[in-house]
Amino acid sequence: MFELPSLNYDYEALSRSISGDVMRFHHDKHHQTYVDKLNAVIEANPEIKGKTVEYLITNVGSFLPSIQTAIRNHGGGHYNHSFFWLCMSPNGGGEPKGEVAQLIQAKYGDFQSFVDEFTARALGVFGSGWVWLQPNGDIITTANQDTPIAQGLDSPLLCLDVWEHAYYLDYKNRRDDYIKSWWNVVDWDSVAKRYSER
Ligand SMILES: [Fe+2]
């Protein structure tokens, strides 16, 4: 059975960008609900027990049609949020170094141009979804709780949750202010680690 992963930092630790209230609701309520609903599907369908979440969401088409949507939404919700927490740190912000800096420079020219493009894509997500930086430097978006790996793409380097539940308590409808502030907590060290281990 899946469990809600603990955060590597306190709920209040990202408060210069995301309040403790939002982190508590987002992690303890929203993410927990995805975990609980994913576990409920597995409970009712023992043939998919013991699989990783990555396996479940990348093989969703092979399961009973009646459970595919639930696996996609709740499995994706668990995968995406587990990934998102790792993309932020109280010591985050600034610019990437080394190989990741080179990747971004090669694709976008400079860091600010990358930030502008990522931000534009995040603002362009209609409704709920996610923005991702891929190991080839591409910026992609997914709707709802869809994931890059379920689309046959490589494991991502970085993601941003642009569901309203990620920012509404702090920023109301101002997704642009949320994104602008989020760059101050991006954990580029974790991005570099994922890039080097790809
Ligand atoms: Fe979320």
What does this protein look like?
It contains eight helices and three strands; from the N terminus they run αααααβββααα. The protein is 49% helix and 7% strand. It has two domains: 19-86, Helix Hairpins (Orthogonal Bundle), CATH 1.10.287; 98-196, minor pseudopilin epsh fold (3-Layer(bab) Sandwich), CATH 3.55.40. The longest helix is centred in the first third of the chain and has 25 residues, at 20-44. It has helices spanning 20-44, 53-58, 65-86, 98-108, 111-123, 168-171, 175-182, 188-196, and strands spanning 129-133, 139-143, 158-161. With 198 residues, it is mostly helical. The structure holds fe (ii) ion. Fe (ii) ion is lined by residues 26, 30, 81, 161, 163, 165-166.
Brief write-up:
The protein is mainly alpha-helical.
How many helices? 8
Q: What order do the strands of the largest sheet run in, or round the barrel if closed? A: 2-1-3
CATH topology of the largest domain: the name is minor pseudopilin epsh fold
Tally the beta strands: 3
Radius of gyration, in Å, reads 17 Å
Bound molecules: fe (ii) ion
The CATH class designation of the largest domain is Alpha Beta
Q: Characterize the largest beta sheet: strand count, sense, and whether it forms a barrel.
A: 3 strands, antiparallel
End-to-end separation in angstroms reads 27 Å
SSE pattern, N- to C-terminal: HHHHHEEEHHH
Which CATH architecture of the largest domain is right? 3-Layer(bab) Sandwich
Structural class: mainly alpha
Provide the domain count: 2
Oligomeric nature of the chains? single chain
Mean pLDDT: 98
